[in-house]
Amino acid sequence: MRKDANVKVVRHPISRRTFLKGSAGAIAGALAAMGPGKFLAQGPYAPRLVQQNKTVIFAIQEFAHPAIQSVLPAFEEDSGFTVQLEGGPVSGNEMLTKYSPAFASGTSPVDLFSDADDDSPTFMRAGWVMPLTDIIPQETWDDFPPSMQDHIRGFLSIDGVPYRIPHEFAVGYFFTRQDWLDEKGVKAPTTWEELVEMGKAFADPANGVWGTTDGLIKPALLYVYMAYLTAQAGGKIFEFDEATGEAFQFLYDMIHTHKIFPEEALNQDYTAQNNLYMGDKVAFMRQWPFFQGVAEGNAEWYKPEKMVITLPPAGPAGSKSWIGGWGYSIPTYAPNPDGAKALLQYLTSKEVAPELAKQQGFLLTPRYSILDALKDTGDELIAAMSLYAENDVFAPRAFHPRVAEAQTVVDDMASLFLTKQASLADVLAQGKELIKALDE
């Protein structure tokens, strides 16, 4: 990815202590330079006596809390607000379940939250999140490369108006136990066929050791993996086409025929998946980039050779992995909207976003400021992002106007097939009918 040749980048050496102390102040100055307005009159940089609500409730998945906490002191000192972090749901379906009742009643338990591609269209169309046009400055939007603009327009906007700003560029990376491969003198699998053969070489079901695994619990996580395999098969998952059937069959065979994938994964989430991998029970797996930070945080276990990222094993359509992501949104009925706006500007600024990305893959996007800050660090995820880009791995996320409901259809149909409750032909036919009903 390249910046516009006319954009001049000026780098100034800065210490971590100076950065943390000064970045919130810099944002305060930038806001002041914008001139007076309703936001400044009521916001964090107005006289503190007029601030009635000093707590900003921010919900984001707990594994991201340490990184967020590292940059909060500067914000809290300069703004006068106190940020209260809460654990956020791990899937879009859980987001809908948790927040929809409050939003529908005209209230909100949080001021700012991290939400996913699969719930955001529902929140946006219902009017439950604020437009960000007058909140996020243009220089922040310009920090995202052209390759992300289609995704921003599709899953984060309505009619060109953004309602969410990405904090994660999510792609399922293929992590491998390079140390295990080296012991056997073999290379990472590059095709579905090799994945099966290599999986058999490592799997020992009697002792709970597997070639590969994933978190497949419903809602949503089974869909994630099926969409991953369907991209490699060349299918359109919401059409339940022939290639989607190939993906369903491949997972079925890994579980039941080849026994390289645990059937228990159908009841496991990503925490259980990660624990299997870090418990030395899995040879390779697809996982989101946040796993890099989780594994590095397990200092007693972590070694770089235990989680080398390689290209996904290629299916009929090649080596593919679909992109998606999470982003920040402000509820329309946020109790403290001014605090939420100020915190959102701070976290997404070109000064703070790179600091967060250095610490946690869940807070990493290919923004110019982030890539510039991390390009010489040897960061594994930056190298992996480049590897996948160079090999045309990125596949678009399947879109449906009622995406959460469409994903539930995939969840349910795949579950019926994988648990031997229905034939492949039946679930493909029923899936088509259920998607058709959503379109009517």
Summarize the structure.
The chain has 440 residues and is an alpha/beta fold. The chain is built from 19 helices and 13 strands.
Key features of this structure:
440 residues; alpha/beta; D-Maltodextrin-Binding Protein, domain 2; 2 domains; three-stranded mixed β-sheet; disordered N terminus
As for the number of domains, it is: 2
> Could you name the CATH topology of the largest domain?
D-Maltodextrin-Binding Protein, domain 2
Structural class: alpha/beta
Helix count equals 19
> Which percent band covers the strand fraction?
5-15%
CATH top level class name of the largest domain = Alpha Beta
Number of separate strands:
13
Radius of gyration: 22 Å
Sheet with most strands: 5 strands, mixed
Intertermini distance: 40 Å
CATH superfamily of the largest domain: Periplasmic binding protein-like II
Q: Mean of residue pLDDT?
A: 87
Silhouette: globular
Query: What topology, given as strand order, has the largest sheet?
Result: 2-1-3-12-6
Low-confidence residue ranges: 1-51
